Amino acid sequence: MEEQTPEERRALFRVVRGEPSDAELAALTVVLAAAGSGDGPPAPRVQDRWSDPSARLRTPLTAGPGAWRTTYWPR
Q1: C-alpha 57: how far from its chain's center?
Q2: Do residues 57 and 75 touch, judged by C-beta distance below 8 A?
Q3: How many Cβ atoms sit within 10 Å of the Cβ of residue 67?
Q4: Which residues contact 47 (CB under 8 A, 6 or more apart)?
Q5: Angle formed at CA 60 by CA 57 and CA 61, multiple of 5 degrees
Q6: What is the pLDDT of residue 63?
Q7: pLDDT of 6-59, one tens digit each?
Q8: Most buried among 1, 21, 25, 62, using CB within 10 Å?
Q9: What CA–CA distance (Å, rounded) separates 16 from 32?
Q10: Which pLDDT score is estimated for 21?
Q11: How many CB atoms lie within 10 A of CB 60?
Q12: Nearest 5°: phi and psi at 53?
């Protein structure tokens, strides 16, 4: 087995057969880097209204004529 140079030991991949162009090596590098980068940033958590803490807070009462009609209107 032939001795490897320090550059060859640090390489992420090596060409075993053929003569790839610089563009082909660049494309392969991009594909391997994208595949090894893992998932993107985590998706933001969507909090449902059922567990929303603001739902436990009472809205201010409005006084005046007809106020009882708006008691159950959506907020």
Answers
A1: 32
A2: no
A3: 10
A4: none
A5: 130
A6: 77
A7: 777 777 778 889 999 999 999 998 888 887 776 677 778 887 777 778 777 777
A8: 25
A9: 17
A10: 92
A11: 5
A12: -65, -25
- What's the confidence (pLDDT) of residue 20? 92
Size of the chain in residues: 75
Residue recorded with tokens 């391997």: 32
Look up residue 67 and give its two tokens: 């106020």
What's the pLDDT band for 74 if we cut at 50, 70, 90?
low
pLDDT of residue 75: 58
Separation CA 13–CA 33 (nearest Å): 11
Type of residue numbered 41:
P
Distance, CA of 66 to CA of 73 (rounded, Å): 12
The distance between the two most distant Cα atoms of the chain, rounded to a whole number of Å, is: 95
- Contacts of residues 49-58 at CB distance under 8 Å and 24 or more positions apart, as own/partner, are none
